[in-house]
């Protein structure tokens, strides 16, 4: 069964450094998403992406965050200058064209900011 | 603000019994609901979804019930197995033409006792 893959599984970064989290969505999916889950809290929506542009973003997704689809298979989340509070699990998800199709998630990247 | 919440943080059931996990949602505009299962160290795994024009939907060993009058969603797992032990999240969204942002609940830990 096709799946969303995320790399790395764990990223440790110094505060203030840039970090790029990578995702390979399911191949025939056209909607892509990033969510995060701070330890012990809910999964929170960050951003959705379709047709090479952001379709929706949350208040969390400020100017320090950006997303990109650099080629036909990867979808990346960049945090320009990381803060301690960015420490969380970051999940990538993808879905088919129809909006009533479920989002399928990767196993996440654990981001630890020191 | 609008929120999705779960009534019980932990549910313990005997192997072979049926499990019922409940969820309350507060956004009356939501028209699409999903249940996810999250095992330790993994991302949310799609279980079943339901649109607001339905009251019930069945899958393999799982049934989702939607009561729009009281804004309540439940997940029923038949003949619960040890492999069902996980955290279960409900999520809601409003279907648009541009992908659907999911709002997650806090999660219920299901523990299956042998």
Structure summarized in a few sentences:
The complex is a heterodimer of chains A (114) and B (114). Chain A is mostly beta strands and 114 residues long.
Provide structural commentary.
The complex is a heterodimer of chains A (114) and B (114). Chain A is mainly β. In chain A, 0% of the residues lie in helices and 50% in strands. In chain A, strands 2, 4, 5, 6, 9, 10 and 11 form a seven-stranded mixed sheet that branches. A four-stranded antiparallel sheet of chain A has the order 1-3-8-7, with no helix packed on it. Chain A starts with a strand and ends with a strand. The mean pLDDT of chain A is 94. Helices cover 0% and strands 52% of the residues of chain B. The N and C termini of chain B lie far apart (41 Å). In chain B, the strands form two sheets. In chain B, strands 2, 4, 5, 9, 10 and 11 form a six-stranded mixed sheet that branches. In chain B, strands 1-3-8-7-6 form a five-stranded antiparallel sheet, with no helix packed on it. Chain B has 114 residues and is mainly β. Chain B has strands at 4-5, 10-14, 19-25, 32-38, 45-51, 56-58, 62-67, 72-77, 86-93, 103-104, 108-113. Chain B has no helices and eleven strands. The radius of gyration of chain B is 14 Å and the shape is globular. The chains are: A mainly beta (114), B mainly beta (114). Chains A and B meet through strand 4, strand 5 and strand 10 of A and strand 4, strand 5 and strand 10 of B.
